[in-house]
Amino acid sequence: MMQANVVIIGSGIVGSSAAYHLSKLGWKDILVLDKGDLIENDGSTSHAPGGVVALSHSKLLTEMAIYSRDLFASLKPYSPNRMMLADVGGLEVAGSDERWQDLIRLHGSSKAYKAESYLLSPEETVQKLPYLNPKAMKGSLYVRKGANIAGSHVTAALQRDATEMSGARFIGHTQVTDLILDKGRIKGLKTSNPELSEVACEYVVICSNIWAPALSERYGVHLPLVAFEHQYVVTEDIPELSYIDTSKPEQEVMFPNARDLDAAMYYRQHWNRYGIGNYQHAPHMVKAKQVKKSAMHPFTPEDMIKAWEQAQHIMPILKGQKFTRSFNGMFAFSVDGMPIIGESHIKGLWSAVASWITHSGGVGKSLAEWMTYGEAEWDMRSCHIHRFNGYATTDRYITDVCMKNYREIYDIVHPKDPPSQPRNVRLSPFKPRLDALGAVYTVFAGLELPNYFQSNEQIFPHYETKIPARSGWSAKHWSPIQGAEHLATREQVALFDLTGLSIIQVKGPDALNYVNQLCTNQMDKAVGSVIYTCWLTPKGGVKRDLAVARLAEDCFWLFVGEGTRPQDLDWVKRNVPEAQLQVQDLSDGYGALGLWGPKAREILAKVSPQDVSNEAFPYFTCQWIEVGSTRALALRLSYAGELGWEIHMPMDQALNVWDTLWQAGQPEIIAAGMGAFDSLRLEKGYRGWGSDVHTEYNAFEAGLAWTLRFKKADFIGREVALKQKDKKLKKKLCCLLLEDRAACLLGYEAVMQGETCVGYVTSANFGYSVGSFIAYSYLPYELSQPGTELEILYFGKPFKAVVSEEPLFDAAMTRMK
User: What gap in Å lies between CA 509 and CA 554, rounded to an integer?
Assistant: First the structure.
């Protein structure tokens, strides 16, 4: 039996990148297996046109793409007879006014992401690529680090360098048939190779992309991705390109790749020929168990008819050309369009799939860092293997969503767009009451939650002068009703649907010690205490912020967001020591409401026999109380910054609690949605997990250092945090106020000091109680002083912004306390 430390399944560009980066970090005894040829493999690496798209609206994907391009450029060429990387840039072409506006927005994001880009007129675009039709476009965005690679040659170079660094071994024509497990961890695997029937190992990394689910699902590891065919054709020799010397590798790609985004097509030079990629045809989905040996399928000419007309329009030199090569190639689509990386519930079994060439270097880097250090440089929540709730791994959901994702691959996506389908996958227990009030829904972790309520149109006239109007892009998924709900909460009282909260219970004799190990704050507080705290990563980044309630000497409830529930549950279970305790997910058994506003105590006192006075029920404590005929856990805290309670009740009694509170609150009470929820918390300076707070920043930078208790027992990240404490801050999360009341930001806009980008917007909303638009951003410490004047770019327009003291509303906390 062969021995290895880590076995990587798949020698395509992601698997080879993983081997390269593990080797670079000092791993030894690495074995890479592939069912086909190691270099010209069966997957998409070999047949893909090789475009590296270096900029997108996703910060993480942009970082991965730029890293990948720079990595590929740094490699020693594999063969002198073939171009390995063409450093030609990329063109994003706009065929409509709407697309042009989106490129202007993307150009602003490029400054925030440190990705060099330039907005070009049609005439300037043609200077970069002379064969485009200037009349077929509104303009383009030139991305400097766009590039083109020969996928198999880059893969070969990565394999060569991994072998030189660590002695990594690569064996082809060897299919992995089974995994060998022992007590929930990897012990080895079996293969189809008679000379290598079994391999003993400690780690297995699945990098087989479209084939991956067929293996992983047999062991309960759900990788929600599916393969789709996409067309690619290469023309015959084009007379206008006859001057190109086809014997010279450096002339293979001399012009930027061009993506015609509105038509879902792209164009790539092959010496004196052109390749055209087409996504605009009907989706051809191939599920993992139906994928055969090769990722290349026969060409379907009927799918190219409309696209070919568009190709000849935007690039007239293609007129009359025939195809010398044509095929349908398969690529992996995950349910949310992001890579799937991380260690599964099986110890030692890792995944790095749902990635294309563009991000492959960054995916390999992140995987290797994660395996080595317990975390990656970049925040991995949007790529985490445990980010999926159960519904998202079902065959029906994967089919429906991935079909939609293929159809909408180049669509313009608003940051607040809920999924168009499927809807009503998960429903709040309060839905009958929400519907009756005219709820306009958004989707959070598959859960339908109210964004605002049409019934509150009646209160809008009372607040109209305090709510600036919006139009166009900024008004999408927004209503002035949100402002009215915000202000009514501050003046009266509102009910908020908090079904998006999750509960992880830690219980047992060792519960206190363990929760103290997880959390930065002191958990050894009296029973009935509620503690706001953080989790840190091993390197001191903020894993998440959360509230923890101590319900008994040996029982704690950890309240986390539904959107990260699977990741958070994995984090709690993964760090469990040899101890006497149980970790249980209670989320699906409880609904929750927020009762917040100046009249909250008055209403709760009407329906509960328990004393809810300030003396009997202090701020940041919890009690089991009766609400009507239901026993519920009430937490005296408020994300809205108002007097009130979070009330958690058994799911089957949730409607009873709503009705009881609603009746007691008449006529002042309203229902309020997620839109008001966000603007209320922003006025109070409360951090948003995933936007203002994530692993790339530490507690000192995020303004959460007050949750660190260094005198208590050790906690994850403590030693690093101690070192951070003694260092001068380089960045700080700052509150900015915009002078223009009509300003509107949605997140990730560039914050500028003159011509220099100094940060990006992490979260933003209008503060209806303070009368200004609010934005948060991590700024260099020297710019964090109140009064510092900056600008924020929104669709190319600079808006003046001033760093301000926080919180903006009720700084003395008198309303909540």
Answer: 6
Backbone phi and psi for residue 797, each to the nearest 5 degrees, phi listed first: -100, 130
Cβ atoms 532, 543 nearer than 8 A? no
- Asked whether the CA dihedral 169, 174, 175, 179 is positive or negative, the reply is negative
Q: Which residues of 258-294 are buried (b: 16+ CB within 10 A; e: fewer)?
A: bbbbbbbbbbbbbbbbbbbbbbbbebbbbbbeebeee
d(CA 15, CA 357): 11
Q: Would you state the pLDDT for residue 659?
A: 98
Catalytic residue among 266, 463, 590, 686: 266
Q: What is the pLDDT of residues 139-181, one digit of tens each?
A: 999 999 999 999 999 999 999 999 999 999 999 999 999 999 9
The answer to whether 153 is a known catalytic residue is no
Measured from the Cβ of residue 560, the count of other Cβ atoms closer than 10 Å reads 24
Of residues 783, 782, 780, the one with CA closest to residue 801: 783
Q: What is the pLDDT of residue 87?
A: 96
Cα–Cα distance for residue pair 101/112, rounded to 1 Å: 17
Q: pTM above the 0.85 mark?
A: yes
**pLDDT band, residue 351 (cuts 50/70/90):** very high
Question: Which helix (H) or strand (E) is 395 found in, with range?
Answer: helix 395-407
Whole-number Å distance between alpha carbons of 667 and 662: 9
Q: For the segment 208-249, what is each residue's pLDDT rounded down to a tens digit? A: 999 999 999 999 999 999 999 999 999 999 999 999 999 999
Q: Is 230 a catalytic residue?
A: yes
Residues with Cβ within 8 Å of residue 363, at least 6 apart in sequence: 14, 17, 18, 64, 339, 341, 352, 355, 383
Q: What are the distances in angstroms from CA 302 to CA 299, 308, 310, 319?
A: 9, 10, 14, 18
Pairing state of beta strands 176-182 and 185-191?
antiparallel
pLDDT at 579: 75
Catalytic residue among 230, 384, 386, 486: 230
Residue 135 has a pLDDT of 97
Identify the pLDDT of residue 130: 97
Task: Tell me how far apart the alpha carbons of residues 488 and 670 are, in angstroms, rounded to a whole number.
Answer: 8
Contact between 18 and 341 (Cβ < 8 Å): no
**Annotated active-site residue in 34, 262, 379, 545:** 545
- Summarize the confidence of residues 783-812 as an average pLDDT: 96
Averaged pLDDT, 238-267 = 96
Residue 359 annotated among the catalytic residues of the structure: no
Count of beta carbons in the 10 Å neighbourhood of residue 783: 18
Residues paired with 194 in a beta bridge? none
Rounded to whole angstroms, the Cα distance separating 385 from 392 reads 12
Is 83's pLDDT higher than 90? no
Burial (CB count <10 Å: 0-12, 13-18, 19+), residue 49: buried
pLDDT for 578 equals 76
Q: Mean of the per-residue pLDDT values for the chain?
A: 96
Which tokens hold the place of 512? 């206190």
